[in-house]
Design a protein that fits this description.
The protein is mainly beta. The chain contains two helices and 26 strands. The strands form six sheets. It has a five-stranded mixed β-sheet, with no helix packed on it. A five-stranded mixed β-sheet has the order 10-12-19-14-17, with no helix packed on it.
């Protein structure tokens, strides 16, 4: 149901003729009626606002058609919806529990609609509106909605009031709660790599569009130390014929750990230190939305060329710290140089302190050092010692 107040008329004030002869009484009655009208107007329902999700309102499910092609996304940026090209069309989306999604016809969100627009969301298979938004008198409808469960939703585009319009339109959507990550595509052929500890958004060869025919490439997700890889997202892959397979190691050989060849959800976690290879293959016919995954690393990657040794002779407090900490050394140790090294082996800071043997050494880091786990490489006249420090 959509409530439209654009054609309502002001309330007419009717004052009996016998009272008009008393101007003071007529004035009092007029003021009272106006106040009553104002109070009553506060009780009337308000039109749907373009910036909120209005539940249990909107156009009927049958007011928009189409939408059998699935859309998937873990993208934090708005992107166009292939099936919503005019008013009277709808899109079909796979959503994850707890994620917040947004649909828009606003120009600021890279959309384009030339008529007064409205958007209605339905949780499949229900045909009862779950979310509604319009732009009263304008072309920039918008809804934001957090999914209570893993599932699928339809979103329909209409021209007010719940009608179609053949004008070319661009509606966009995004996963607003998904992290903004660098994009990596599994190549159409050949391979590419992701370094240990690098969180990315992993997509099929088609990126934000449909994947191509005859794809056969793979991406190696490196892990080492105690680092753990998690793959989480959605997929729409042609059943039985096209496959995303995850293998242990740095090549797509052996028996896959897991295979995805349908529409649904991907949620896979590797073992500590286990490198994973994601391989995607498609046949020569049909293509679909593919997959869109968040690849996240937890715990620590091993640092090439760095081994914790002699750490018993070193002590850091507080640890974790805010960037200011004290290094305690053994009574016969003199510090010549300090290197702060990240988990990828890159030197972030180097210090040359004037250290007196047997005394604590105060270390002050600038605010530009990001939070995380680091290694402190301590150079002494007899060698190098390494210990860990956590910056909060």
């Amino acid at each position: 149901m959509r409530i439209d107040f654009t054609n309502t008329r002001p309330m007419a004030l009717i004052i009996p003729s016998q009272l008009r002869s008393d101007p003071l009484l007529a004035k009092a009655l007029t003021h009272g009626a106006l106040m009553l009208a104002c109070c009553c107007s506060l009780l009337l329902p308000l039109p749907a606002n373009a910036q909120v999700c209005v539940p249990a309102q909107g156009c009927a499910f049958s007011a928009a058609s189409g939408g059998n092609v699935l859309q998937v996304s873990a993208n934090n940026a708005f992107m166009p919806i292939s099936t919503m090209t005019s008013a009277g069309r709808r899109g079909y989306f796979i959503v994850r529990a707890g994620e917040t999604y947004e649909w828009s016809t606003r120009q600021a969100d890279s959309a384009s609609v030339g008529y007064e627009s409205e958007l209605t969301l339905f949780q499949a298979p229900s045909t009862t509106p779950a979310c509604y938004g319009n732009d009263p008198g304008g072309p920039e409808a918008f809804i934001t909605w957090t999914s209570p469960t893993d599932g699928a939703v339809y979103v329909g585009l209409n021209e007010v009031p719940c009608t179609g319009n053949a004008s070319a339109s661009v509606v966009t959507w995004r996963c607003a709660s998904c992290p903004e990550l660098p994009e990596v595509l599994v190549p159409d052929s050949g391979s590419n790599e992701v370094a240990c500890g690098t969180n990315v958004r992993l997509l099929d060869p088609g990126g934000n569009g449909y994947y191509p025919n005859d794809a056969n490439g793979y991406t190696v997700l490196h892990a080492s130390g105690t680092a753990v890889i998690q793959l989480r997202g959605t997929s729409a892959i042609e059943n039985w014929f096209d496959k995303l397979a995850v293998f242990a190691g740095s090549a797509p050989v052996g028996t896959p750990l897991v295979t995805y060849d349908a529409s649904g959800y991907i949620d896979y976690t590797g073992a500590p230190g286990q490198t994973l290879t994601a391989r995607f293959r498609s046949d020569g016919s049909s293509f679909m939305a593919g997959f869109d995954l968040q690849v996240t690393y937890t715990d620590l990657c091993a640092v090439v060329g760095i081994h914790e040794r002699g750490a018993a002779q070193l002590n850091i407090y507080p640890n974790p710290s805010s960037g200011s900490f004290t290094l305690l050394c053994s009574s016969d140790m003199q510090v010549l140089q300090l290197d702060l090294v990240d988990v990828h082996g890159s030197t972030i800071r180097t210090f040359h302190p004037r250290h007196v043997i047997g005394t604590p050494l105060r270390v002050e880091l600038e605010n530009s050092v990001a939070s995380g786990c680091y290694f402190l490489r301590v150079h002494t006249p007899t060698g190098v010692r390494v210990t860990r420090v956590v910056i909060q």
